[in-house]
Protein backbone atom coordinates (compact mmCIF):
# COMPACT_ATOMS: atom_id res chain seq x y z
CA UNK A 1 0.00 0.00 0.00
CA UNK A 2 1.27 3.45 -0.85
CA UNK A 3 1.96 6.01 1.86
CA UNK A 4 -0.61 8.48 0.51
CA UNK A 5 -3.37 5.91 0.25
CA UNK A 6 -3.18 5.14 3.98
CA UNK A 7 -4.56 8.59 4.80
CA UNK A 8 -7.39 8.16 2.31
CA UNK A 9 -8.27 4.76 3.76
CA UNK A 10 -8.33 6.26 7.25
CA UNK A 11 -10.71 9.00 6.14
CA UNK A 12 -12.95 6.47 4.40
CA UNK A 13 -12.92 4.22 7.46
CA UNK A 14 -13.85 7.05 9.80
CA UNK A 15 -16.50 8.31 7.41
CA UNK A 16 -18.11 4.90 7.03
CA UNK A 17 -17.80 3.93 10.69
CA UNK A 18 -18.79 7.21 12.28
CA UNK A 19 -19.95 9.71 9.70
CA UNK A 20 -22.68 7.66 8.03
CA UNK A 21 -24.41 6.64 11.30
CA UNK A 22 -24.14 10.14 12.76
CA UNK A 23 -25.58 11.77 9.65
CA UNK A 24 -28.23 9.08 9.34
CA UNK A 25 -29.50 9.82 12.83
CA UNK A 26 -29.06 13.59 13.09
CA UNK A 27 -29.83 14.98 9.62
CA UNK A 28 -33.37 13.53 9.17
CA UNK A 29 -34.53 14.58 12.67
CA UNK A 30 -36.22 17.85 11.60
CA UNK A 31 -38.06 16.04 8.82
CA UNK A 32 -39.05 13.11 11.06
CA UNK A 33 -40.28 15.50 13.74
CA UNK A 34 -43.18 16.41 11.41
CA UNK A 35 -44.60 12.95 12.11
CA UNK A 36 -44.46 13.36 15.88
CA UNK A 37 -48.13 12.54 16.47
CA UNK A 38 -48.25 9.51 14.20
CA UNK A 39 -47.57 5.95 15.30
CA UNK A 40 -46.01 3.19 13.28
CA UNK A 41 -46.09 -0.30 14.78
CA UNK A 42 -47.36 1.30 17.98
CA UNK A 43 -44.30 3.53 18.34
CA UNK A 44 -43.61 7.13 17.32
CA UNK A 45 -41.88 7.38 13.94
CA UNK A 46 -38.86 9.18 15.40
CA UNK A 47 -38.30 6.44 17.98
CA UNK A 48 -38.48 3.74 15.33
CA UNK A 49 -35.94 5.68 13.25
CA UNK A 50 -33.51 5.70 16.17
CA UNK A 51 -34.11 1.97 16.80
CA UNK A 52 -33.46 1.26 13.12
CA UNK A 53 -30.13 3.05 13.33
CA UNK A 54 -28.99 0.80 16.18
CA UNK A 55 -28.88 -2.02 13.64
CA UNK A 56 -27.68 0.10 10.73
CA UNK A 57 -24.79 1.43 12.83
CA UNK A 58 -23.77 -2.14 13.66
CA UNK A 59 -23.95 -3.01 9.96
CA UNK A 60 -21.88 0.06 9.08
CA UNK A 61 -19.21 -0.83 11.62
CA UNK A 62 -19.21 -4.44 10.44
CA UNK A 63 -18.76 -3.29 6.86
CA UNK A 64 -15.96 -0.98 7.98
CA UNK A 65 -14.21 -3.91 9.66
CA UNK A 66 -14.75 -6.13 6.65
CA UNK A 67 -13.36 -3.60 4.18
CA UNK A 68 -10.53 -2.02 6.16
CA UNK A 69 -9.55 -3.87 9.34
CA UNK A 70 -10.05 -7.56 8.66
CA UNK A 71 -6.43 -8.14 7.67
CA UNK A 72 -4.95 -6.01 10.46
CA UNK A 73 -2.84 -7.87 13.02
Briefly characterize the structure.
This protein is mainly α and 73 residues long. The protein is built from three helices and two strands, in the order ααββα. The protein has a domain at 20-69.
Describe the structure using short key phrases.
73 residues; mainly alpha; two-stranded antiparallel ribbon; 2 strands
Describe what this molecule looks like in 3D.
The structure is a single chain. With 73 residues, the chain is mainly alpha-helical. It has a domain of 50 residues. The chain is built from three helices and two strands. Strand 1 and strand 2 form a beta hairpin. The radius of gyration is 16 Å and the shape is elongated. The model has no long low-confidence stretch (mean pLDDT 85).
Q: Numbering strands along the chain, what is their spatial order in the largest sheet?
A: 1-2
Structural class: mainly alpha
Low-confidence stretches: none
Strand % is 5-15%
| Count of alpha and pi helical runs | 3
The CA-CA distance between the termini, in Å, is 15 Å
Percent of residues in helices comes to: over 70%
Quick check: average pLDDT? 85
The biggest sheet, with number of strands, parallel, antiparallel or mixed sense and barrel status, is: 2 strands, antiparallel
| Helix/strand order, N-terminal first | HHEEH
- CA-based gyration radius: 16 Å
Count of distinct strands:
2
Shape: elongated
Amino acid sequence: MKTGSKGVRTILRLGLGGGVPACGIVLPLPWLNRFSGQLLLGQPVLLLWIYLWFFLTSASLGLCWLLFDRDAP
